[in-house]
Amino acid sequence: MSVPWHDMFFLTLPVIEKILRPIFIYIFLVIGLRLAGKRELAQLNPFDLIVLLTLSNTVQNAIIGDDNTVTGGIIGAATLLAINAGMVRFLHGHRRIETLVEGKRDFLIRDGHILRDHLQRELMTRAELTAAAHRQGIGSLAEVDSAVLEPTGTLTFVIKKPTAEETRHHELLDSLDSLHRELAQLRGEQGPV
């Protein structure tokens, strides 16, 4: 067999080591991202983005070791995919462990009031919360009844519903506008008097 094929496919490390390395790094990253908080997943500022981009490069050598073979890469990638699939399936049936690993949801706005201590705990600013609301088509935080930071890092906004009085007020205004248009149309048909 030619040297290039040998260099591409024959492992320089034992297969068990190629399997264990990604498992250890996966567990480390799950714990590290959990400790870093949901914000790391929700609202990436430039610093967070730099950390996440360089994180993969930083742990690359720990996953593959001195082995740069295609076979080694396939084993490492397959191991990561397998452990992730196994973890997701395992957590699906174990709610308490899932909460421990992923964390709990956190209200950032409740009943229209911004919970500043919750924002502080999640290391989010009001400006970041406002920007997230704008990305979801919400003009102002004054329109928001509740905002929840989910364990996955997703921000969920619920818009305030108008009260019965506000709804009736808008209906009356619409009716008056309709009457005004009809009256203008009738005046237009009769011509000047």
Protein described:
This protein has 193 residues and is α+β, with helices and mostly antiparallel strands. The protein folds into two domains: 3-102, no CATH class; 106-159, CRO Repressor, CATH 3.30.240.20. The chain has helices at residues 3-9, 15-36, 39-42, 46-64, 70-92, 95-102, 116-121, 126-135, 164-190; strands spanning 106-110, 113-114, 144-149, 155-159. Strands 2-1-3-4 form a four-stranded antiparallel sheet. A hairpin with a 5-residue loop joins β3 and β4. α2 packs antiparallel against α4 (46-64) and α2 (15-36) crosses α5. The longest helix has 27 residues, at 164-190. It starts with a helix and ends with a helix.
Q: Can you give me a brief rundown of this structure?
A:
With 193 residues, this protein is an alpha+beta fold. Helix content is 65%, strand content 9%.
Provide the number of structural domains. 2
Mean pLDDT across every amino acid position: 82
Shape descriptor: elongated
Biggest sheet: strands, sense, closure?
Answer: 4 strands, antiparallel
Q: From the alpha-carbon coordinates, what is the Rg to the nearest angstrom? A: 28 Å
Given helix and strand content, the structural type is alpha+beta
How many helices in DSSP terms?
Answer: 9
Helix coverage percent: 55-70%
Order of helices and strands: HHHHHHEEHHEEH
Q: Termini distance?
A: 105 Å
Count of distinct strands:
4
Instruction: Point out poorly predicted stretches.
Output: none
Largest sheet, spatial ordering of strands: 2-1-3-4
Q: What fraction strand?
A: 5-15%
